[in-house]
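User: For my dataset I need records formatted as: sequence, then structure tokens, nothing else. Please produce one.
Assistant:
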Amino acid sequence: MTHPDIPPSRTEDEEPPPEPPAGPCGSAGDDATARACLTAVADPGDPAMGALLEEYGAGVVWRTLRGGESPPAPTGARAGAVAQRAARWCERAARLDADALLAATVELGCRLIVPGDPGWPTQLDQLGRRRPYALWVRGAHDLRHACLRSVAIVGARAATAYGLHVAADLAWGLGQRSWAVVSGGAYGIDSAAHRGGLAAAAPGVAVLACGLDLSYPRGNEGLFADIAARGALVSEHPPGAPPSRHGFLVRNRIIAALTPGTVVVEAGLRSGALNTARHGQELHRAVMAVPGPVTSALSAGCHRLLRDGAAVCVTDTDDVVEQVGRIGADLRAGAGGTALDRDALDDTARRVLDAVPRRTCSGTASVAEAAGVGLDTALSSLGLLAAGGFVERGASGWRARNGPRPAPGKLPGA
């Protein structure tokens, strides 16, 4: 078997080998397009595919599979495992309509981000060979920016009223302090966390285990629309990919990797939320658990995490921020909705803050003009102010976040 980057030698009398099938995914130079096709060919998080991408690059791997060949096993990978998987990949590659795949992406209003893109969350690179080949994203918010200050909240689907209240309250409190909530979009704790974050007008991220053209579970279709309008829906599966048990398990590593910390609110001893917590431990992220009634089977997983020292006990937003925030930058209590004190801002940042309207949105250029600073300076200051919780990005520009948050435990309208 020859290396896919090196054509086999031939004599002058031999006919040249046939070119691999042409098409939008047939070029070794088009890394993004090749990665889009590979998401439809290989199971997500397969370390064998990760090793091939690391060794040869996406374009070469896709061209080889499209040509019906098995790439040579890369360094450190078992040749038998690669060959066995490659036979399945080649079969899928031969059936893939790349044009239809790319057309569906445009039709859905999705975008594809790949490693090296400005919007790629670089913390995913810590997954090594299990890193997503690419991510399909739909929504108004930049994924990388949304995850800079984010917390994962996960737990049981069949949650109790206690668990739903705690998840929503934690997410709302985090949103008030400009922390985005990342979860899986499932019923129960996931949904409560997403709704709590949205109630605080904070961007949220839902990592789905199916294509973004499918709403699973169907009952959360409206919730997914709200998340897309304010944050981002994310999947490593191409459009049309149905959900599967394996898909739910492997997507948990993305939830854990995107954030500096994961909170498990309610989880049984065999809950998928514990799988997310294990990924967080492996990635050296903060893992937190909310205690529940000792008689509740739905809190048994949380209690085991706490008993084994695998998680820190948290009971409110301040506890969570203390674990994931920056020392000296994130206030533990009574911060009035911001992560920094206004007195900690320099003169330029204060001028930019004063130029941001409270009731309407204003574009970066308008803010820069009102503050009397350059566009680059305004953009840099707005990023600092957003991270500090002073401003937020709306659909049509920037606006100041309003006043202090209500007392802990009180959701808007509660």
